[in-house]
Amino acid sequence: MALQSLDIKQRSATTTPSTQVRQTVEIAKLIDVSACIGCKACQVACSEWNDIRDEVGNCHGVYDNPMDLSAKSWTVMRYTEVEQNNKLEWLIRKDGCMHCSDPGCLKACPAPGAIIQYSNGIVDFHQENCIGCGYCVTGCPFNVPRISKEDSKAYKCSLCSDRVAVNQAPACAKACPTGAIQFGSKEDMKDYAAKRVEDLKERGYDQAGLYDPQGVGGTHVMYVLHHADKPNLYAGLPENPSISPLVSLWKGFAKPLATLALAGVALGSLFHYVTKGPNEVSKEIEDEIEREDKEEAK
Amino acid sequence: MIRDPKDLKRYEPQERANHWVVGISFILLALSGLAFFHPAFFPLTQLFGGPTWARIIHPYLGVLMAVSFLAIFIRFKHLNKMTPADKEWLAKAKNMVDGNDHDMPEQGKYNGGQKVMFWALAVCMLLMTVSGLAIWRAWFGFDITVVRLGAVVHAAAGAVMIALIMVHVYAAIWVKGTIRAMWYGTVTRAWAKQHHRGWYRQVTGK
Known about the structure:
Largest interface: A-B, 47 and 49 residues
Strand order of the largest sheet of chain B: 1-2
Order of helices and strands of chain B: EHHHHHHHEHH
Distance between the termini of chain A: 85 Å
Oligomer: heterodimer
Order of helices and strands of chain A: EEHEEHEEHEEHHEHEEHHH
């Protein structure tokens, strides 16, 4: 998406503050897994609103279709059959970008302005600045960004930043027939989730809870899970996601230090030269060789 | 035209050509690599026709450098074996840096410092090649942990390698009469006698 708003919290590969005088309300999408019926209306609405049409794939004998996120499928339903409390449970999770407060993709991105985090919390890819290196994939703790085979740009859910900018709910939330996808301020979504969790607990799901992982500073897509103690049950939702220490090392304090060290080597060389002088061939040895030549000539 | 026919041949034409293929690919790799290393260097991508082109070209240049470095490594490996005299030289390296090279031990074609440089660059080159392939998404799709480790190793080894090459280039500028060896292959006898007396005696028989 092009810049929809100048209310920017962070911008990739940018070391000075972005425009952030205005404060907007922090928003969130709440996905109530317990209310999802797996109809895929959200997938269709996403492709409809964002004008993306993925290849028609093959049936793999399961409900998942497509089987994975792609540059043209920014959200997919993931279906898992598990046995909990001696009962078969069919867990359906709408997967896609979590819009982390501390986004690993943005941290890893080397292209200025290719990834933007708005002050409302949305993490948006600006493909016109994307160089296609795939560092966002390396940085993401949720394995969400996908590089397009057609244009080598990275794509993912934008949380319909264009709709949100004009006070509309994301297309998926608008299309959901059961109200499993709620959208509003993050505070309101947490309140709503608390009521849902209470209800689930009354119905015997003792471990029901909100998935808003603090390892990435909280997310702007949250889940209500009936088994919040075992997020892994939901098609491998990470239990305690955070930016990999390798990525933090790679993109953290080491690089400015290394840059200073390189400048130090360059300046050190210059000042070595001007303080110690060049290492020239001594006159003495030159004379020796000249003498030898004369002797040989005799 | 040869100024002095008694100048000593230090490098063959194909050795020099090999060196400059490595050198040119290194400079292009360092400039494009730094652009992705830290935002402060990002404008360097403009030297390559823009950031996307820099991203596309960089790994192919890396392949060129890996192959040409391997060739130069094979050419010079046998001349870079560490000897006790090299260790002695290294122990006294501080005197050398201070500009006092009178009581340095006699050195063959390469001194201890040059040999350390040779092996350090070889290790960096190996790390750069392996980690570079690990993060080359246009052709490979390794496990995410491998890619993350590759990214760290590639950035770290790259920074070390740039520092090493700065020292390599500066040493050539500092020691007068050196650079011509890589331009047209010869050095003066006086240069050889002062800096590499063992090699001087070996090639002149004196």
